[in-house]
Amino acid sequence: MTDPADPAADPVRRWRRLVDTGTAVLLDGFHALKHAVRFGADVPVAVTADREAALALADDLAPDVRGPLAALLAQVPRATYEALVPRPHPTAVAALAVRPPREANLAALARGPRRAPVVVLDNPRNLGNAGAVIRLAAGFGATGVVTTGTLDPWHPTVVRGGAGLHFATAVERLDVEELPPGPVFALDPEGDDLRAVRLPDDAVLAFGSERAGLSAALRARADHLLALPMRPQVSSYNLATSVAMTLYHWSTTGFGEPA
């Protein structure tokens, strides 16, 4: 019999204890939890205001992880669920995961030979854009996403935008001088046309901030400057769009087999 005095017996007490550690990652919504479980995240606690509906979603959209989700999800009153999260999700599902050790991510980024590029966001400003990029990178099988500057790539808003796919690729914040090995291809309006360049699988693909572009340090570190095709008088693309275009180009010119 479970001891009711044990915090592990009560998902809400366990949730609050994990939050107090400062290392828990909020998985906001069914899809974030689904992806995290699918890619091997350590998820100590998951709650929902409607367990039957959540498991029906699993039956329809993620039967491969239906069993683990059924074992994880604890039903709590809706008011309790809403008190645990900053912004209730339409699926009324939330979970806390353990952030992967920094050492493991750094090892994944440095390991060679690399079969897929690393994406670098140089001093990004928009949390939602960063999350969208991580989701893209995971979809293309990129080795990882690195941010420079002050933005925390594990901020809850970034994780929400990434739909739990932080656990499908290596995500870390580094200084420019700490970037992983490999030729650096930096996106810049003055660069060579991307369409004329073959991107190798070990490329480091660097994108400047939404307002300022590439920093002086990143520009100096770049081996090649590349430009995206763009109609005259159009100022720029959204950051996530730029990353998507570049990764798609890599997928048609490099794209090694998954490791």
Primary descriptors:
4-stranded mixed sheet, 10 helices, 6-stranded parallel sheet, SpoU_MeTrfase, TrmH family RNA methyltransferase, alpha/beta, 259 residues, transferase
Q: What is the residue-averaged pLDDT?
A: 91
Per DSSP, the total helix count is 10
The H-and-E topology, N to C, reads as HEHEHHEHEHEHEHEEEHEH
Question: Per the principal axes of the C-alpha atoms, what is the gross shape?
Answer: elongated
Number of strands: 10
Our measurement of the CA-to-CA distance between the termini, rounded to an integer number of angstroms, reads 44 Å
Over the alpha carbons, how many angstroms does the gyration radius reach? 20 Å
Secondary structure category: alpha/beta
Percent of residues in β-strands = 15-25%
What is the helix fraction of residues, given as a range? 25-40%
Main sheet properties: 6 strands, parallel
What are the low-pLDDT stretches, counting only 5+ consecutive residues below 50? 1-8
Lateral strand order in the biggest sheet? 7-6-5-9-8-10
Describe this structure in words.
This protein has 259 residues and is α/β, with parallel strands linked by helices. The protein is built from 10 helices and 10 strands. The strands form 2 sheets. The chain has a 6-stranded parallel β-sheet with strand order 7-6-5-9-8-10. It has a 4-stranded mixed β-sheet with strand order 1-4-2-3. α8 links the parallel β6 and β7 (170-173). α7 runs parallel beside α10. Mean pLDDT is 91; it is low at 1-8. Residues 118-248 form the tRNA/rRNA methyltransferase SpoU type domain. This is TrmH family RNA methyltransferase. Keywords: Methyltransferase, Transferase. It comes from Streptomyces galbus. One of its GO terms (molecular function) is methyltransferase activity.
